[in-house]
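Whiteboard transcription, Tuesday session. T.W. wrote the structure tokens on the left side:
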């Protein structure tokens, strides 16, 4: 959808010449919807300069929202750090939910393990590195945002009004510096205190605030034994004159005042002076101030890391505030320069803009989920985060609907998935894929919305509106339909399916240089071969096991693809590890003397096999079992039982392939365990089947070197959504019914002349454990060949055949 948020040609702001209009091209809004009290999430894609931009707009006038800084693991210093999403979860509880967050401050790469600048949470300093910092973005008690230069002062006011200067709050991992005589440690400090001096434990009697009334604190204890921060206490450390003055003027039970101030100063490089905010509750270090009072902040924005860095493309996180300080624009952009991103924020309405830490740290989280793509390929642990907080009570009651985006652009006969979100009265999303919705299109010729929630465009180009309704709530989406319909083509070559999952037929076409999905319902569909599937509302559904060709016609175009329907039930063993000749086993140089020994089995195992080997010294020792195994049908999951003798296994990588690609699932067996390990498949799409296991790569522990190391394997199974029927429990002899091996992958059944039609074939072992169940067809001569989805080991099996006239059983020698 091409969004109407067009970048303005020029600004009525005094931006210097270097701040040119970003040449990003026409924006396309991928997502735009409310996410919480006064908050709207937006994802915009630019094409001329490929940029993914993620934005939260927060209106501070909403009484149910707040903004907070949160230190990693709730403490400082913190050597481990925590991801932004983890920090949001840590700062959430009933009536206080962090519903979005971005990474915030950079951190010292040396041993301090603290954030780089001044940061304040709920009126208390988290980190104060001797006034180091470039700017402060503050939120005051009235929820007004302001930007000013950093300069913090604090003091203890004794009962007789004697003042003692506080030199720092919450020291870094380097400990209390020798030149500091008075340090305040609050509930965020994690430092172990050992320095000799005077310690006073304080109990606050009021709220903490900066540039407000001093905070009264009752003195709980005074002594020369270090008091350790415990996440609940406030501790004053004093020595030299500070200790002498305090000890001579304050007694246990007295009340002292802690006065905190941001004071008038200038920005460190530009020399500009901006009065500090009053009644400050939250403060965020901005590095640097990019836009100040509507203009690029000269000598601040362009004194950034290295000369010219401000114009280089790299991931950025920035916050803009309006002139009245009541609206925030928080963005994370994966590309674009800091100046371009700041210019974008000015166009959104920002009067002041500050920059946060960027690069691989740039992250935006919405409802604990990372919405951008960090350059590390995963979310980076960071020092602290800027969080949007919902103060609304938990409320699951539906209030209103929203589309995930305001408009779409399509072509005649195109198909576009729609996503509806259900919100409570505070804007919180309570269902991010709402289906209980009625749709209408205006005009009616615009098209319709099918049962899968997809908009199916009509045959003629036009514009209109889709309306979604749930109860008394409605929302609308603009539709622009242009161009003509291209020739449809299939997106798949073949299809495997069962009778549980359906496959909406994917067709695409090209028109006006764009590729788009085509409505499969415009084609006339027919099935040849086994009558095993049908097409309903453009989706293929399995009816019974079999093979067919599905053919669709539209005007002069014909498309076709083969369909295999395989309906599994219960559990199916695909490999029992009895026939080791079919397994190709290789190993790294540290592994020697490999052999299988089925006589060595864990307690309680009646079958399976054990791989025995010697493990010598070597780097990353491993064993690879190459054994291609295609799983029958569409299992919900597969599993394997493993005995991890003496904790020899470090991990197992299972490599799978499917029509859409390949992936690796890693298993981590527990120490010395005998367990079944499951690989889920239910979350994969229909086009991902059939699934084949290509190999198992077993990584061995280097701590378990020695001779006769062992790993036992048993029953690689697939699990299906249908309940299993009973297996065969007795070797019944049926005169006239013959079953024999016709190839390594199939068996032949003869003697069914009177049962022409279809048949259900069940294969079980001699203990009655069902291995395979599938549908097949019987030829007029009374025979049928059954292609097996699994490799059989040598042995004797029971084959059951269900036809219209009854159930017959015969032995199979393999």
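and on the right, the sequence the group agreed on:
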């Amino acid at each position: 959808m091409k969004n109407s948020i067009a970048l303005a040609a020029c600004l009525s702001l005094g931006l210097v010449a270097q701040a040119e209009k970003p040449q990003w091209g026409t924006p396309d809004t991928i997502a735009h919807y409310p996410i919480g009290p006064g908050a709207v999430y937006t994802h915009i894609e630019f094409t001329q300069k490929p940029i993914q931009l993620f934005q939260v707009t927060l209106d501070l006038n909403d009484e149910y929202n707040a903004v907070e800084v949160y230190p990693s693991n709730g403490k400082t210093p913190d050597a481990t750090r925590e991801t932004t999403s983890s920090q949001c979860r840590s700062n959430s509880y009933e009536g206080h939910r962090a519903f979005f967050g971005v990474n915030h401050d950079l951190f010292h790469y040396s041993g301090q393990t603290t954030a780089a600048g001044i940061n304040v949470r709920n009126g208390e300093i988290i980190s104060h590195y001797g006034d180091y910092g470039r700017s402060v973005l503050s939120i005051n008690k009235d929820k007004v945002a302001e930007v000013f230069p950093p300069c913090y002062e604090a003091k203890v006011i004794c009962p007789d009004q004697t003042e003692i200067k506080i030199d720092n709050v919450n020291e870094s991992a380097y400990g209390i510096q020798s030149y500091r005589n008075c340090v305040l440690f609050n509930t965020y400090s994690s430092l172990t205190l050992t320095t000799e001096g005077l310690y006073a434990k304080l109990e606050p009697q009021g709220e903490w605030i900066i540039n407000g009334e001093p905070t009264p604190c009752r003195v709980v204890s005074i002594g020369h034994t270090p008091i350790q921060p415990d996440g609940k206490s406030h501790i004053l450390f004093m020595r030299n004159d500070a200790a002498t003055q305090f000890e001579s003027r304050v007694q246990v039970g007295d009340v002292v005042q802690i006065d905190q101030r941001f004071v008038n100063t200038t920005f460190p490089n530009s020399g500009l002076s901006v009065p500090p905010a009053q009644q400050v509750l939250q403060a965020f270090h901005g590095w640097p101030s990019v836009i100040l009072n509507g203009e690029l902040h000269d000598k601040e924005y362009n004194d950034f890391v290295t000369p010219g860095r401000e114009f280089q493309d790299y991931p950025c996180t920035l916050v803009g505030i309006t002139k009245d300080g009541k609206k925030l624009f928080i963005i994370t952009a994966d590309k674009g320069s800091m100046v371009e991103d700041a210019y974008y924020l000015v166009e959104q309405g920002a009067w002041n803009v500050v920059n946060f830490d960027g690069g691989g740290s740039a992250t935006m989280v919405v409802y604990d989920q990372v919405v951008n793509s960090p350059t590390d390929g995963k979310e980076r642990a960071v020092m602290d985060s800027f969080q949007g907080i919902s103060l609304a009570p938990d409320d699951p009651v539906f209030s209103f609907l929203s589309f995930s985006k305001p408009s779409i652009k399509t072509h005649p006969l195109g198909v576009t998935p729609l996503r509806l979100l259900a919100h409570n009265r505070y804007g919180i999303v309570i269902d991010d894929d709402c289906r209980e919705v009625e749709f209408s299109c205006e005009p009616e010729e615009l098209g319709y919305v099918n049962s899968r929630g997809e908009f199916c465009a009509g045959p003629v180009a036009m514009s209109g509106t889709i309306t979604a309704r749930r109860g008394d709530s409605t929302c609308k989406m603009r539709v622009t339909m242009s161009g003509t319909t291209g020739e449809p083509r299939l997106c798949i070559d073949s299809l495997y399916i069962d009778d549980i999952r359906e496959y909406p037929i994917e067709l695409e076409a090209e028109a006006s240089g764009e590729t788009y999905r085509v409505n499969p319902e415009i084609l006339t569909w027919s099935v040849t071969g086994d009558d095993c599937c049908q097409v309903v509302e453009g989706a293929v559904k399995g009816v019974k096991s079999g093979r067919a060709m599905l053919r669709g016609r539209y005007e002069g175009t014909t498309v076709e693809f083969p369909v295999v329907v395989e309906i599994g039930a219960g559990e199916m063993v695909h490999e029992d590890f009895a026939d080791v000749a079919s397994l190709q086993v290789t190993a790294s140089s540290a592994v020697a003397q490999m052999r299988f020994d089925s006589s060595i089995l864990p307690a309680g195992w009646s079958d399976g096999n054990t791989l025995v080997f010697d493990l010598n010294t070597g780097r990353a020792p491993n064993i690879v079992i190459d054994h291609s195994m295609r799983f029958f049908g569409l299992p919900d999951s597969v599993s394997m039982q493993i005995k991890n003798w003496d904790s020899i296994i470090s991990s197992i990588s299972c490599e799978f392939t499917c029509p859409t690609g390949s992936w690796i699932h890693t298993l981590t067996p527990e120490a010395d365990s005998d367990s079944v390990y499951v690989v889920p498949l239910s979350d994969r799409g229909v086009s991902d089947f059939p699934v084949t296991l290509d190999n198992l790569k077993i990584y061995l522990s280097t701590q378990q070197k020695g001779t006769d190391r062992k790993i036992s394997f048993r029953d690689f199974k697939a699990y299906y959504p249908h309940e299993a029927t009973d297996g065969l429990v007795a070797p019944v002899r049926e005169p006239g019914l013959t079953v024999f091996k016709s190839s390594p992958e199939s068996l032949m059944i003869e003697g069914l002349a009177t049962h022409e039609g279809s048949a259900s074939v069940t294969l079980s072992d001699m203990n009655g454990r069902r291995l395979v169940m599938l549908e097949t067809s019987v030829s007029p001569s009374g025979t049928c060949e059954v292609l097996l989805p699994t490799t059989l080991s040598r042995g004797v099996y029971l084959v059951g055949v269900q036809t219209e006239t009854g159930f017959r059983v015969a032995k199979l020698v393999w």
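Someone added at the bottom: Residues 40 and 762 are 56 Å apart (CA to CA).
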